[in-house]
Inverse folding.
């Protein structure tokens, strides 16, 4: 029996020639990503046990992102804890406030993580990096502590779900709509414990940003991670970041690899999709119901990249955010912030009446910079619409693509972005 | 006998178990008053040490925050029983030696406030009101070994890789609660 990409990577990292789903292994981690919310607990655990060491300071990347800039004293202390540990242990890759942004998006751009490698982090969206053809997964603080201490983590070899996407994505439709469609189809636990491997001609034509959005959302279907095989798009992306082919291992799934489930998606039939409260699998077509919104939020590790901001600007240009709607735009990293400024996107956002915020996880998880109040209704480009996720438990969160968020901000209610042309006219006019 | 708190809905997520606004601490006692806050504000005050949570499928989905396990344990919960669990919550439970038991039909068998007799050796849970007894999926040997060691960090420190793999290679149910009740039944059938 052949192996999938994920099985090959985990076999190579556990000293086995061959692994099968269900097998327990102890794997080495090439990279450990640390942020300031789950890392302090891991460090305390290690200190309490006399295990306060780091397996390799050159293999740890520390990026504060959840509660920065600190919104209260407790958050400031957690940031301090991360920062002092970085200094004490000589952690080589530290992206401080002002030099980083949302950890997953910073990391994908660093030129550090490579195809064929393993990555763990105390954050469920670590699966994001799977778009680079690596095995990246989120763990809790105890696993994170183990990885920091020994560069090891236990894994049960996961089964793999193959998602074949074919056909042309229609104008106004984005990878976010495709992943919301997949989660709608398989359910919020449809891929529980499985790897979601994306293939097909649609994926072949997709840029890296779009692929990251797909793998980022694996956890919203319960997946252990998402993964995309390396191709010329991946190679070019890595070369632009100083990683040349030959310096990494490209794994491909064998023709006789075992897939637990195969899902076929016709991309040409996917429409702008909105996940209604309170679960990401609750997808419906955008604009079918006229739902008034009080908030519109663009950002997060899922959809805060430059292409996402361009999508938003295309719709906001020459238009205004509707009266009574608070729109917040959060570029995912400092580099994306700068790029958006150079391209004139910031001016478009400000002219439209949107507020632009510092790169951080911010209100995606209800921490700061746009937390929702009672009964607020938010259309958001983030990844979760659970009760209380962005603030008050009575608030309603609708998940969508950045384009749908922008169209809805302008309309004042959830709207189909295909009705908003780039020349400022409305198709409906 | 421990009381049972029923949260019958599927997909109870870690944002509900412990909202992010409380993540500025990792101390169990500080997290405990907020356990399940966005689902039931009165919950934490009602829990008696050793009480059991009975929940719907995919319990603990969403964020990787281990704070979910700590908040429940800090509040006094002795075990969570559900048809299956989301994978990161499940491994966090194992790593903390905190009980996450997979049991098909558990939600239908209990009402809020029922008393339960949990028999870990026999692998059963009985409802003292109805007399109904259910069998849960046996805890994997690996999970028991981690619990015995005091947690994953102790286990890892004390075992080398070869020992771990020799002990656990053929362990049955281990990390995630495999999605569906049907699969749980399959696992049980396999063991029988």
């Amino acid at each position: 029996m052949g192996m999938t990409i994920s099985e090959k990577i985990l076999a190579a990292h556990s000293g086995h020639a061959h692994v099968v789903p269900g097998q327990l292994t102890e794997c080495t981690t090439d990279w450990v990503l640390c942020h300031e919310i789950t890392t302090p607990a891991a460090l305390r655990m290690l200190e309490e046990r006399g295990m306060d060491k780091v397996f390799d300071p050159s293999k740890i990347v520390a990026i504060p992102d959840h509660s920065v800039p600190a919104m209260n004293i407790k958050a400031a202390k957690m940031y301090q804890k991360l920062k002092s540990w970085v200094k004490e242990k000589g952690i080589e890759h530290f992206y401080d406030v002002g030099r980083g942004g949302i950890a997953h998006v910073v990391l994908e751009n660093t030129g550090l993580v490579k195809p064929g490698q393993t990555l763990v982090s105390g954050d469920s969206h670590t699966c994001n990096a799977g778009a680079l053809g690596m095995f990246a997964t989120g763990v809790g603080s105890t696993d994170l502590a183990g990885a920091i201490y020994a560069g090891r983590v236990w894994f049960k070899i996961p089964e793999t779900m193959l998602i074949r996407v074919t056909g042309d994505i229609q104008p106004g439709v984005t990878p976010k709509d495709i992943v919301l469609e997949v989660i709608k189809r398989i359910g919020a636990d449809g891929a529980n414990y499985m790897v979601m491997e994306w293939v097909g001609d649609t994926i072949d034509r997709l840029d890296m940003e779009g692929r990251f959005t797909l793998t980022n959302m694996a956890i919203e279907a319960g997946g252990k991670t998402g993964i995309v095989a390396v191709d010329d798009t991946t190679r070019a992306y890595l070369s632009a970041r100083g990683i040349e082919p030959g310096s990494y291992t490209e794994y491909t799934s064998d023709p006789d690899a075992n897939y637990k489930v195969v899902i076929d998606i016709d991309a040409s039939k996917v429409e702008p999709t909105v996940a209604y409260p309170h679960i990401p699998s609750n997808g419906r077509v955008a604009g079918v119901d006229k739902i008034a919104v009080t908030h519109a939020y663009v950002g997060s590790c899922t959809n805060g990249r430059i292409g996402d901001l361009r999508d938003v600007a295309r719709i906001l240009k020459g238009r205004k955010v509707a009266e009574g709607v608070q729109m917040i735009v959060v570029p995912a990293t400092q580099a994306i912030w700068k790029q958006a400024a150079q391209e004139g996107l910031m001016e478009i956002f400000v002219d439209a009446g949107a507020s632009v915020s510092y790169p951080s996880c911010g209100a995606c998880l209800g921490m700061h910079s746009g937390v929702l109040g009672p009964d607020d209704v938010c259309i958001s480009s983030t990844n979760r619409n659970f009760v209380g996720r962005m603030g008050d438990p009575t608030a309603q969160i609708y998940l969508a693509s950045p384009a749908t968020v922008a169209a809805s901000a302008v309309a004042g209610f959830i709207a189909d972005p295909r009705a908003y042309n780039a020349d400022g006219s409305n198709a409906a006019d | 006998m421990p009381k049972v708190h029923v949260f019958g809905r599927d997909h109870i997520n870690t944002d509900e178990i412990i909202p992010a606004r409380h993540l500025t601490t990792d101390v169990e006692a500080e997290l405990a008053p907020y356990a399940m806050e966005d689902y039931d504000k009165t919950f934490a005050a009602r829990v008696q040490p050793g009480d059991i949570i009975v929940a719907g499928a995919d319990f603990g989905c969403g964020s990787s925050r281990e704070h979910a396990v700590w908040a429940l344990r800090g509040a006094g919960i002795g075990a969570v029983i559900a048809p299956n669990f989301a994978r990161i919550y499940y491994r966090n439970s194992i790593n903390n030696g905190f009980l996450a038991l997979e049991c098909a039909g558990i939600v239908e068998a209990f009402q809020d406030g029922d008393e339960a007799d949990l028999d870990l050796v026999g692998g059963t849970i009985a409802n003292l009101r109805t007399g109904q007894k259910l069998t849960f999926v046996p805890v994997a040997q690996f999970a028991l070994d981690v619990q015995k060691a005091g947690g994953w960090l102790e286990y890892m420190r004390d075992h080398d890789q070869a020992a771990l793999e020799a002990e656990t290679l053929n362990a049955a149910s281990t990390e995630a609660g495999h999605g569906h009740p049907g699969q749980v039944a399959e696992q049980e059938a396999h063991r029988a």
User: Anything to note?
Assistant: The mean pLDDT of chain B is 86. The longest strand of chain B covers residues 4-7. Chain B touches chain A through 51 residues (CB under 8 Å).
